[in-house]
Specification:
- It is a single chain.
- The protein has 14 helices and eight strands.
- It starts with a helix and ends with a helix.
- It has 402 residues and is of the alpha/beta class.
- It has a five-stranded mixed sheet with strand order 6-5-4-7-8, with helices on both faces. The protein has a three-stranded antiparallel sheet with strand order 1-2-3, covered by helices on one side.
- It folds into three domains: 84 residues, no CATH class; 52 residues; 234 residues, no CATH class.
Length: 402
């Protein structure tokens, strides 16, 4: 019985090896087929095909060792010369498998995916070792792939914004542990999230700051304006004093104070035994059927709490009419516009994804990772409620501006 079990096991192992060899061969075959099709498209013709559209000629093939999802294999890369309009020729370079590339893009994306999940170089190599083999993925190779993020982040951070248009901007900050001046400290990260005409949220800016002061926020907003960002219809903020002062530099843009942050402020000023009653009456303001009813509830709140607890009334007055700005927009958008939850949720994901890192060694390392989590869709941003109505408002604003 033992011999029979051993034989069956050997047969299973042999079967798996045969299947693996077959699949590996098919992967190489698929890569070579894609390269041939890419070259046919560049030349405008296939093998031995003569036509007026032909833009060059083949020049043999080169063998290259490439790491694919099936391991490292020899791949035949076709060569050709492309003829320009002036009759000169240039060597054909594949976009599918660029010059000097030794790994397919799927491998690079897998490396980045594991890195963005919180793994370091050693863990990445360990995770991919069963697939690629230990000798095919050195520590330096992993570092080079991850290092590409630096260039992508710098391009994103300095890109031209003249052609980008956002109807709503959400501004908020959160804290991250970063090593600065030889000490690990929790520093604020200022984040800006935009909402385009299609309702899709887009990460616009990330900046590490020493505080959430008006000068720090003012510098960030000034940078967006310098790069050509058109003024939005609305800016939603958490209500911090520094951020409110910075908004003064964007004249004519409506502002909405986050009602959740304001409720927290009110609860801090309210005695514990009265918080439930105060919260119910605050909710009558922010969940009214329209702006008129909301303003009535607002005035009633002030009259009552100016007597019961003056500090609560003063805190509500500090928020003023900016707590009710969202009522000026279509009802379908109210849920998304009355709070900074859109950005709070993103910040919460940032904190969750980076908690495996005790701290970041540099400012750039911290911001690059946060950017990459969104750019490579490790964190996916959804559309806001009522985005179809937002598109109409943005088109109307463009028509009026013209």
């Amino acid at each position: 019985m033992r011999e029979q079990g051993s034989t069956e096991h050997s047969q299973v192992v042999a079967f798996r090896q045969d299947i693996r060899r077959l699949l590996e061969g098919k992967i190489v075959e698929a890569v070579e087929t894609i390269l041939e099709e890419e070259l046919d498209q560049a030349l405008g013709s296939g093998w031995y095909e003569r036509c007026e559209q032909r833009r060059g000629y083949r020049n043999g093939a080169a063998s290259r060792r490439v790491t694919t999802v099936g391991g490292t294999r020899e791949v035949k890369v076709p060569r050709a010369r492309l003829v320009g309009d002036d009759g000169s020729t240039v060597e054909f370079h594949s976009q599918v498998l660029p010059r000097y590339a030794r790994r397919t893009r799927q491998i690079d994306e897998a490396i980045l995916g594991i890195y963005l999940a919180g793994a370091n170089s050693r863990r990445i190599r360990k995770a991919l070792e069963p697939l690629l083999g230990e000798e095919n993925l050195s520590r330096s190779a992993v570092s080079r792939v991850v290092g590409r993020l630096k260039g992508l982040f710098e391009q994103w951070r300095g890109r031209d914004l003249f052609q980008e248009r956002y109807g709503v901007l959400f501004l908020d900050g959160f804290h991250l542990k970063v090593r600065m001046a030889r000490r690990v400290i929790a520093v604020p990260v200022l984040a800006v999230l935009g909402v385009g005409e299609d309702g899709q949220k887009v990460l616009l800016a990330l900046q590490l700051a020493t505080s959430e002061s008006s000068s720090q926020w003012g510098h960030l907003l000034a940078d967006l304006q310098r790069r050509g960002l058109p003024a939005p219809l609305l800016i939603v903020v958490d209500g911090g004093a520094g951020l409110n002062k910075a908004l003064a530099g964007w004249v004519g843009v409506k502002a909405q104070r986050c009602v959740v942050h304001k409720l927290r402020n009110l609860q801090e000023h309210c005695p514990v035994h009265a918080r439930s009653e105060m919260t119910r009456e605050f909710n009558r303001i922010v969940f009214a059927k329209d702006g008129l009813q909301a303003r009535g509830a607002y005035e009633a709140f002030l009259r009552k709490w100016s007597v019961l607890c003056p500090s609560v009334a003063r805190s509500l007055e500090e928020g003023g009419s900016e707590l009710l700005t969202f009522y000026e927009f279509p009802r379908s958008m109210w849920r998304s516009l009355r709070t900074t939850n859109c950005l709070e949720n993103l910040n919460r994901e940032f904190r969750r994804r980076t908690k495996t890192q005790a701290s970041f060694g540099t400012e750039q390392a911290a911001l690059t990772l946060l950017y990459a989590l969104v750019a490579f869709e490790q964190i996916r941003l959804r559309k806001i409620d009522g985005y179809m109505d937002l598109a109409k408002l943005m088109r109307q604003a463009s028509t009026q501006a013209a």
